[in-house]
Amino acid sequence: MSQTSILTRGRGFTLIELMVVLALVAILASLATPSYRSFMVNQQLTSASSDFLASMLQARSEAMRRGLPVSILPTNGTSWDSGWYLSVANNSCAPTGTAFGNREALNSMITIKATTNAVSTGVTNKSFVSTNPSFTYSPVGFPVTSCASPYYSGAMNGRMVFQATETSREKQIVVSNSGRARICDPQRETCTAD
User: Fold this and answer.
1) CATH says 48-184 is which class?
2) Which of 22, 47, 69, 87 has fewest C-beta within 10 Å?
């Protein structure tokens, strides 16, 4: 036999070699899938909390720019999970005019709940956590519970808790009495308002 015929016959894979490689690829893919899913859910959690914080910053900025109170309201009027929008508010903090800054409903894997800041004493946060939730900034950029002009009242510090139902991870938006909001990860730090 010539040397060229031996070389040409040695090319390619046997069926057994191919099956072993496919089995290894399948095993590695099955190990990576749960981690990838958790990663995607946690990314959606981060995205949702960042979107809400951006809406809060936009509402505060618009309130100061327009010289009128601006509210963030749930799309369906009862649940933040339905999405939210911004609107100029009247003296009872109810929306007036055209909605802007709309955010679509959250993925079913992410839920939002609002809580008062447990560390502060005497904090009443009813419009932040009520059955008809809202969040309103006064024209000077402070969060308020009453929009009656010229005296805006009722500090609204508290926390918005974003939770991934599959991974139980949380991100919190902590709102101080001054209206400053920030994202907090309770696995890395204590989440309290200033």
Assistant:
1) alpha beta
2) 22
Residue with token string 């909001």 = 181
Domain ranges for the chain, please list them: 48-184
Q: How many residues does the chain have?
A: 194
User: Could you give the dihedral angle defined by the CA atoms of residues 179, 183, 50 and 156, in that order, rounded to the nearest 10 degrees?
Assistant: -30
Q: How far apart are CA 41 and CA 39, in angstroms?
A: 6
d(CA 16, CA 38): 34
Contacts of 106 (CB under 8 A, 6+ apart): 48, 80, 81, 83, 112
DSSP secondary structure string for all residues of 55-114: HHHHHHHHHHHHTS-EEEEETTSS-GGG-EEEEEE-TTS-EEEEEEEEEPPPPTTEEEEE
The encoded tokens of residue 170 equal: 């949380």
pLDDT digits (tens, 9 = 90+) for 37-74: 888 888 888 898 899 999 999 999 999 998 888 988 88
113, two tokens = 């709940």
pTM of the model: 0.73
